[in-house]
Amino acid sequence: MRSMSKPSPVSCSKPSNAQLPTPTRRRRGVGGETGFFGKAQNSKEDDGQAVAANDPGMTFRRPQAILRDQLMATLKAIQRSSAATRRAEMAKARDDLFISGAARRDRTRRLIELGGLVEAAGLIDRIGHNPDAILGALRVLTKMMDLAKTGDAGFSSTVLFHRWQEAGSNLVENHNKAVEAIKREERGWASRG
Q1: How far apart are CA 172 and CA 164, in angstroms?
Q2: What does the pLDDT look like over 10-61, one tens digit per residue?
Q3: Which of 103-107, 142-146, 156-160 has the lowest mean pLDDT?
Q4: Residue 60 · residue 68 · CB < 8 Å
Q5: Closest CA to 114 of 141, 89, 79
Q6: What would the 3-class secondary structure string for the chain be?
Q7: Burial class for 18, CB neighbours closer than 10 Å (0-12, 13-18, 19+)
Q8: What pTM, to 2 d.p., does this model score?
Q9: Which string of b and e fits 62-91 if b means at least 16 CB within 10 Å?
Q10: CA distances in angstroms from 97 to 87, 168, 186, listed in the order given
Q11: Could you report how far apart the first and last alpha carbons of the chain are, in Å?
C-alpha cells in the first residue's frame, strides 16, 4: 500500500494581511532620550527614518542613514569599477600574450630561414660549424655595407646590395635546377623499376 504524504500546515495556511509590529529601538540614556541628539519621546524611529512629532505625514532621514547609504553606494561603485578594471587588464594581458606569441613565432621562423641561407651560401661547408667565424664573416659584410654608404669603398651601397641580390638569386636558381634534376632522376628510376 502506498503512503500518502500529508501536506504541512505551514504551506496550507493562508497569508495574513496584518502588519507585524515594528520593534522600537531604544537607547539607554538620561531623561528618556530614545534616538539621535535627544529627540522627544513621542517621535518614532524606523531603520533610519524619523517621523516628525508635529506632522505625522512628514518624514525625513537621519544624517547617519543618508551618509551610510551614500557610503554603501560609493563602495559598490568602487567595487564595480575595480572589477571592470581587472577584466580590462586581463583582456589586455591575453591580447599581449597572443601578440607576443605570434611575434615570437615570426622571429623564430625568420631566424631559422636565415640559418638555412647561411648553410645554402656554403659558409658552413667552408668554415665548419664555427659560430665565431660565421659571425665574423657576416660582420665583415656589414662593414662593407657601411663603407659603401659613406662612399669610402669606391662604389655605392645600392650597387653592392644589387650584386649580392643577383648572386643570391643565381644561387637559388642553381639550387632549384639541381633539386629538379634530382627529382627527375628519381622519377626515372621509379618508372624503370
Answers
A1: 12
A2: 555 566 676 766 766 655 555 554 444 444 444 444 444 544 455 455 456 7
A3: 156-160
A4: no
A5: 141
A6: CCCCCCCCHHHHCCCCCCCCCCCCCCCCCHHHCCCCCCCCCCCCEECCEEECCCCCCCEEECHHHHHHHHHHHHHHHHHHHHHHHHHHHHHHHHHHHHHHHHHHHHHHHHHHHHHHHHHHCCHHHHHCCCHHHHHHHHHHHHHHHHHHHHCCCCCCHHHHHHHHHHHHHHHHHHHHHHHHHHHHHHHHHHHHC
A7: exposed
A8: 0.39
A9: beebeeeeeeeeeeeeeeeeeeeeeeeeee
A10: 15, 37, 46
A11: 87
Q: What single-letter amino acid sits at 22?
A: T
Average pLDDT rounded to a whole number, residues 130-138: 87
Q: Which residue has 517621523 as its cell numbers?
A: 51
Pair 24, 16: CB distance under 8 Å:
no
- Total residues found in the chain within this entry: 193
What cell was used for 157? Answer: 651601397
